[in-house]
Design brief:
single chain, 566 residues, alpha/beta, 2 domains, five-stranded parallel beta sheet, 18% strand
């Protein structure tokens, strides 16, 4: 098919690649002068949504990389410029640029029979082109949320974090930061460094997860399939229905889970044995940020002190006011602002904004503050993601199949990358969505006949498990379970019998750190042995540090009530 891809950022690039793998004729339009989307920085981009100067990824490169171009080496956190360089190498490796028309904006889409008419503008000239299918990969970061109740009377400057580049504008100012997410955590820290005073206004507490564990490991070593299944499959308050290794076969499920119990005990015992008398594995001299492991850090420039650790724990206790200790909200994988909370450089007000008059803001708890600048870290509206005849009901991507495939248009329209795992990486999800879409267009994968029923079932399940992040319909409870369910349909999920017959592979896939190379061992466009080698590349660390995966559960929500962890 002739396919139009809108956007050449991290989601658009992998979409081009997966479509080309299936033999489609691809044309991508991007209004920028180069690839990269929000990762691209150039002159005159002050009014665009772009990654700020000193951004570090909140997910290690092992998980931010595509499964067909994996990152080699230990898990580390890249800076913005380093990740942009990775995207450039990916585009060059697979010849993606020749399919991209830069400086061209898509202005409209219309459906005519079995084809799409795409209107594009280039150098002020508008023209129309015909395609068989379209993939919107331009991302949700278009319309900043700036209509914040209570700030109508504020006469100082109001800035959205979409336009934040560095802290110079806030030097010596009285600053009110509204909202907290992963980027906002950096912003609060940077503003707190230079502002005369800084207040962080929030209405609820998000779950905080430091990026560094034990001074030298990335915390995202911790997510394992067994833990995700334990949290979400065995919960009594909502049924689990996503496809996984055993499908709907009860006998296979029993065999698989029995095997997991046996190998679980074996792996734990082996880990203890090796930790006791096994060979010593030297600790790296630097942590995943490239900083010395001494003194130990919780995060970038965030010392692992008793005060900082206790502040994180207290914050997390407030994040689940219903008493639940199961993951039900978006994680903030960034605690770099915590030292400023501890020292008092940043003051937190969690009551919400009441009203404002001039430079004075009054909070719901009747306290007041005078500010020169209000910095909004309030996210983006998803209401404007529709274009032309391609509508998303209520602007809610949960009304699409698996957040991407439009239930109408016979599988010829997709929104790739409009998804956010509570913990996990968007590019990895976008890649799997693109693989699915490409197979549908090739006729090798059929659109589910009961697609509306599946959408409704998935939507209810996700809304239940993301109840503490109700304004984020792009959120999914588990990247692992989501990707497994897509992989089962694509045909790239490892078959259960292969795992049962190969205990080493079973242990790595079920108990080892999640690695998306598991989806390139079998199935279409697999990498075979190379993918298996990448999966096993962390094997020694995983077995040696089995205790790490267990102790990490004390940071992540489980069925254990928080008071029992004090």
């Amino acid at each position: 098919m002739r396919v139009c891809v809108v956007g050449a950022g991290s989601s658009g690039l992998t979409t081009i690649k997966q479509l080309l793998d299936e033999g489609h004729d691809v044309t991508c339009y991007d209004k920028n002068a180069d690839i990269g989307g929000l990762w691209l920085r150039d002159e005159g981009d002050e009014e665009k949504m772009k990654a700020y100067d000193d951004l570090y990824l909140t997910i290690s490169m092992k998980l931010m990389a595509y499964s067909d171009f994996p990152f080699e080496g230990r898990r580390v956190f890249y800076r913005r410029s380093q990740y942009f360089d990775y995207l450039r190498r990916y585009a060059d490796r697979f010849g993606l640029r020749e399919h991209i028309r830069f400086g061209t904006a898509v202005t409209d889409l219309h459906r005519h029979g079995d084809s799409w008419t795409v209107s594009v503008e280039e150098h002020g000239v508008v023209r129309a082109e015909e395609f068989d299918a379209v993939a919107i990969c331009s991302g949700p970061f278009k319309t900043p949320k700036t209509d914040i109740p209570g700030l109508d009377g504020f006469t100082g400057d109001i800035v959205h974090s979409a336009h934040y580049r560095n802290n110079e504008r806030f030097r010596g100012k009285r600053v009110l930061v509204v909202g907290l997410g992963e980027s906002a955590a950096d912003v609060v820290r940077e503003v707190g460094d230079v502002a005369e005073s800084c207040t962080l206004a929030i209405r609820s507490y998000t779950w905080l997860l430091p990026r560094v564990y034990n001074g030298h490991r990335t915390t995202d070593h911790g997510p394992v399939r067994s833990h995700h299944h334990e949290m979400l499959r065995r919960s009594a308050d909502y049924p689990f229905h996503l496809n996984t290794f055993w499908g709907r076969n009860r006998i296979v499920k029993f065999v698989f889970l029995a095997m997991s119990v046996v190998l679980g005990f074996t792996t734990t015992a082996l880990g203890v044995f090796r930790s006791t008398i096994g060979p010593h594995i030297p600790i790296p001299e630097v942590n995943p940020f490239g900083q010395s492991v001494e003194p130990p850090m919780l995060d970038l420039n965030t010392p692992h002190t008793d005060e900082n650790w206790q502040a994180v724990r207290e914050w997390n206790h407030k994040s689940h006011p219903d008493g639940s200790w199961v993951q039900r909200s978006i994680f903030c994988k960034n605690v770099t602002f915590i030292p400023h909370i501890v020292s008092g450089k940043v003051v937190v007000n969690d009551s919400g904004i009441g009203h404002s008059d001039g430079n004075t803001v009054t909070f719901q708890d009747s306290t007041t503050g005078d500010y020169d600048i209000v910095l909004l870290c309030t996210g983006f509206s998803a209401q404007n993601i529709s274009i032309g005849d391609l509508h998303v009901k209520d602007g809610n991507v949960r009304n699409l199949y698996k957040h991407f495939l439009h239930p109408e248009h016979q599988g010829t329209a997709a929104f790739i990358g409009f998804i956010r795992p509570l913990t996990g990486a968007v590019p990895t999800c976008a890649e799997m969505q693109a693989r699915y879409f490409a197979r549908v267009l090739s006729g090798k994968l059929a659109v589910p006949a009961d697609i509306d029923e599946r959408i409704g079932r998935d939507k209810e399940w996700e809304e239940h498990w993301t109840a503490l992040s109700p304004t984020h319909p792009e959120a999914i409870p588990s990247q692992v379970l989501y990707l497994d369910s897509l992989a089962a349909e694509i045909g790239c999920l490892l078959p259960w019998w292969r795992l049962v017959l190969n205990p080493k592979l079973f242990i790595q896939v079920w108990f080892g750190s999640f690695n998306q190379s598991c989806y390139r061992i079998v199935g279409p466009h697999n990498r075979g042995r190379a993918a298996l080698d990448d999966l096993y590349s962390e094997e020694i660390e995983n077995r040696r540090d089995w205790a790490f995966n267990m102790s990490l559960l004390q940071l992540m929500p489980t069925h254990v009530h928080p008071e029992r962890l004090i």
